[in-house]
Amino acid sequence: MAGSKAVRGVVLCGGKGSRLRPLSYYIAKPMVPIGRGQRPLLEYVLRLMSYHGIKQILLLIGHKGEQIKNYFRGGDFLGAELSYLHDDPSMPGTGGAILNALRKGMMDEDSTYLIYYGDILSDINLSEMLKLHRSTSAVATLAVSTAYTLPVSIAELDGNRIVRFEEKPAFKVPVGIGILALEGEALKHLRELAREGEELDLMKHFLPRLIELGLDVRAYVTRAFWYDVGSLEKYEKLDPDEVERRFSFLFKGEA
Fold it and tell me: 151 or 215: whose pLDDT is higher?
């Protein structure tokens, strides 16, 4: 259990951003400017963590990672303490990035972590999520949303006749939104999954392995706003006025 251990933040921001090309040829994916103030997406992630008391944050960087370091530096202006680690190309995938941090001594098996995918914009209540995680025996708690809208139209068929058609319906099944509370003790199972040079993914490989082992994996169900900014289409459709309205609380007291 997490108990009263301080929670350390980890942000996965090393991807090449292939779905954001050609923009990502020139800028790191988490650095895409959003909102009226054109602040980097990653700033919203880091400010949200700091707002909820997560002050020690490790950024796992890769493609154009120096842009991230040069902008955020030590994190003083966020009220946080930032550290950085470049991904190892021989350990691809989100799980590979975490494993690299573990091997380099930047993470350990005695801490509690809040792992956040760097292309997700959300106003999720991290304090509530961590409170739920701490109150259970869970080794992992995944934020899931029941407010996901499918990006495609759905046809209901009778043979080859369309009897009902719905444009981009709401999808009621809980979907993971790339935010995970994790006990460091579970990372030993990530080590067991590692195969040199093979992709290791947290959601595709690691979480299913924890469940397969019978370990306690919980869900924090939220209706908070969340938005995957990871593709050019999604980025272009992000409403800057909505960003300002939802996230002004992170910038109170600033000009």
Answer: 215
Host H or E run for residue 47 = helix 41-51
**Widest CA span in the chain:** 62
Asked if residue 22 has a cis previous peptide bond (ω within 30° of 0), the answer is yes
Q: Which residues touch 125 (CB under 8 Å, ≥6 apart)?
A: 52, 222, 224
- 158 confidence band (pLDDT: 50, 70, 90): low
CA distance 104 to 24: 28
Q: How far is CA 30 from the centre of its chain?
A: 11
pLDDT band, very low/low/confident/very high, at 163 (cuts 50, 70, 90): low
Handedness of CA 69, 70, 75, 81 (dihedral sign): positive
CATH 3.90.550.10 fits 7-251, yes or no: yes
| Structural domain spans, the chain | 7-251
pLDDT of residue 111: 92
pTM of the model: 0.87
Q: Is 128 helix (H, G, I), strand (E, B) or coil?
A: helix
pLDDT of residue 1: 43
Question: What token pair was written down for 75?
Answer: 């994190």
Q: Which residues have a Cβ under 8 Å from the Cβ of 97 and sit 6 or more positions away?
A: 12, 14, 60, 62, 87, 91
Phi, psi of 113 (to 5 degrees): -125, 145
Rg (CA), the chain: 19
Query: How far is it, in rounded angstroms, from Cα 249 to Cα 253?
Result: 9
Question: According to the model, what pLDDT value does residue 151 have?
Answer: 58
